[in-house]
Amino acid sequence: MANVLIAPSVLSADFANLERDVKMINSSKADWFHIDIMDGVFVPNISFGFPVMQAINKHAAKPLDVHLMIVNPEKYIQTFKDSGAANISVHYEACTHLHRTIYQIKDVGCKAGIAINPHTPIHLLKDVIKDIDLVCMMSVNPGFGGQKFIEHTYQKVRDLKQLIQENNANVLIEIDGGVNEVTGPKLVQAGADVLVAGNYVFSAKDPVATIEQLKNI
Ligand SMILES: O=C(CO)[C@H](O)[C@H](O)COP(=O)(O)O
Questions:
Q1: In angstroms, what is the span from residue 118 Cα to ligand 1's centroid?
Q2: Angle ∠(82,50,35) on CA atoms, nearest 5
Q3: Adjacent-strand bridge partners of 194
Q4: Among 29, 74, 166, 196, which has the highest number of CB atoms less than 10 A from its own CB?
Q5: Which residues have any ligand 1 atom within 6 Å of their CB?
Q6: What share of the chain is helix, strand, coil (3-state, %, to 5)?
Q7: For residue 4, is pLDDT > 90?
Q8: Angstrom distance (rounded) from CA 7 to CA 20
Q9: Annotated catalytic residue: which of 36, 39, 65, 193?
Q10: Residue 43 φ/ψ region, left for φ over 0, alpha for ψ in the -120 to 50 degree band, beta for the rest
Q11: Where does a divalent metal cation bind (predicted)?
Q12: What's the ipTM?
């Protein structure tokens, strides 16, 4: 059995019952909390910011995997670390000095990830692949939960796996968007290490069992 890591996306939680939903994730087989930060500039939606993340962190018993869908992420790395981030992923498309930002993340003591939009080709990661811990591959256009999975992602996972192996790099492949009981197993077969799931988990009758089902892929 593959040891896939499961990261429920808090974006799909009930914000009026956030403590309850955080405790649900604590009690489940989930590995990380996936925290989506959206600024209304890089993506056409605004999610939540530091106070909400800090409130989640107060109750979370698992690492916070932070996905920054924001412009100028380098301005906020220390504050995200101080708000509880274990992993910080910045978008390739949002960083002019990507290599510098990766080391900024590492210097504050977090794992460094690069997130890529569906249109961004894998080969663009070649010169940083040995510097990072994680690639957060978007399998929907970022900005909203509950969107339809983009099928081209399977081939991108295989291409990324090959790039990682060719460079003898130590990088986790995380897939974000449209993960469910159909796409999840195919993604793991293609080489995914981490599955983010928002809508599929939080719209389920039994979210804990749904997380376990993904974990057992
Ligand atoms: O980054 C995101 C949106 O930009 C979300 O994490 C992603 O869409 C997961 O949601 P779902 O599983 O509902 O598709």
A1: 13
A2: 90
A3: 5, 174
A4: 196
A5: 9, 11-12, 34, 36, 67, 140, 142-147, 176-179, 196-200
A6: 45, 20, 35
A7: yes
A8: 17
A9: 36
A10: beta
A11: 34, 36, 67, 176
A12: 0.97
User: Residue 144: helix, strand or coil by DSSP?
Assistant: coil
Q: In what side-by-side order are the strands of the sheet with 85-91? A: 5-8, 194-197, 172-176, 134-138, 111-116, 85-91, 64-69, 33-38
Q: Give the residue carrying structure tokens 């999975």.
A: 149
| pLDDT tens for each residue of 129-187 | 999 999 999 999 999 999 999 999 999 999 999 999 999 999 999 999 999 999 999 99
Strand partners, 174: 136, 194
Please state which CATH class domain 5-215 belongs to. Answer: alpha beta
For a pLDDT cut of 90, what percent of the chain falls above it?
99
d(CA 89, CA 67): 5
Identity of residue 128: V
Residue in the block written with tokens 């209304």 = 40
Residue 15 is assigned to a ligand binding site: no
Question: Domain extents for the chain?
Answer: 5-215
Q: Are 132 and 163 in contact (CB under 8 A)?
A: no
